[in-house]
Amino acid sequence: MSQIPSIIVTQFTFSVNTSNFSLKCVRDTSVTSVVFPGLYSTLFLFALVLNCLAAWIFFNIRSTSTFVVYLKNIVVADLLMTLTIPLKVLADSDVGSWRLRAFYCRYSAVLFYTTMYISILLLGLISLDRYMKIVRPFWKCPLQRVGVGQALSAGVWAVMVSLALPNTILSDRTPSLSSGRLKCTSMKNQAGILWHEVLNSLLQVVFWGTLVLMVVCYTFISRKVYESYRASRSGSITASRKTTAKVFVVVGVFFVCFAPFHFARVPYTLTQTRSVANQCRASNALYVAKETTLWLSATNVCLDPLIYVFLCKVFRKRLTAALKRKPLPQGALDICANGSVLLLSTLSVVH
Fold first, then answer.
1. What is d(CA 127, CA 145) in angstroms, rounded to the nearest whole number?
2. Which pTM does this prediction carry?
């Protein structure tokens, strides 16, 4: 039978024949292909400089505590995430062939998300470590051993990489190029689509669970700080309030960076994995919301090293000494390692 030609109206492509009626939504990238490449390019330049600087300093500090172990792993995760940004810029701005975007979808985007959630989990481990060091300093727990911290860090990497691998392996379909820009989900087979939805549900649990852990730990930490000030009768209520504020700034920054993305991610994922007939406008709006909140999450790679520089006294001293080419005293680097020595410093250093 003869087939009526396709009719394109704004965001919709209608294909009609005698036996079937289908509605296909074409993604509107007019905003995301112009605005976000510029934002990510700026982010990349700052993140690369700051994270290289952070890595240079932290890897000159001995791993004598779980705290330092977790911080070093965050620096590595942030660096890897930073290195995926240029490919995202090229893919989003439609520079290069479809093979470039296919490579981004199958490998680079997977690494981007994997390292982001590794950082989230490590921040959760840091909050638990600070709780044990500050609230229960005399509680001998295996989690405070350096070897255990290294094993936990390795476990976080192993678990997240294992969860991410199916996204690469199951993206084995020949890309469809008939409707403009290549969509990453068009490369996934049926099992890949299902795993994509399951994994995003698991990552929601990871994020919200980590956020709850941080709120609980830092609430106890702030109460301990307040009680310490009262017990010492220092009368420095202002100092107590500043320390408490810093504690909740940690949670606040974490929430502002990552929560919006996780609010937008659920409905957006459903538009990727399920039918969106008669919902094309909503699908495009959710895509823009997802990209906007994803960029906000990515800014965390700049916030981490900035907080190291401006809030960590030991880190700042190490940076100053390195720039002036003056060696620090031997004991100076041990303060960062032994978090219970200086309560205020340990609270301030945590992202």
1. 15
2. 0.81
Cα distance between residue 211 and residue 252, in whole Å: 10
Contact 177, 98 (CB under 8 A): yes
Q: Which domain holds residue 321?
A: 29-349
CATH assignment of the domain containing 43: 1.20.1070.10
Is residue 268 within 8 Å of residue 286, measured between CB atoms? yes
Residue 340 lies in a domain: yes
Show pLDDT as tens, one digit a residue, over the chain (351 residues): 444 443 333 333 333 333 333 445 666 666 777 888 999 999 999 999 989 988 888 887 788 888 888 988 999 999 999 999 999 999 888 777 788 888 998 999 999 999 999 999 999 998 898 888 888 877 777 888 889 999 999 999 999 999 999 999 998 887 766 556 777 888 888 898 899 889 999 999 999 999 999 999 988 888 887 777 777 655 556 666 666 666 777 788 888 899 999 998 888 887 766 665 557 777 778 888 888 999 999 999 988 877 676 556 667 777 777 777 665 555 554 445 444 333 433 343 333
Contact 68, 337 (CB under 8 A): yes
Q: Are 202 and 163 in contact (CB under 8 A)?
A: yes
Residue 319: phi and psi, rounded to 5, are -65, -45
On whether residue 253 sits in a domain, the answer given is yes
DSSP string, 80-130: HHHHHHHHHHHHHTT-S-HHHHHHIIIIIHHHHHHHHHHHHHHHHHHHHHH
C-alpha dihedral over 264, 301, 333, 343, to 10 degrees? -30
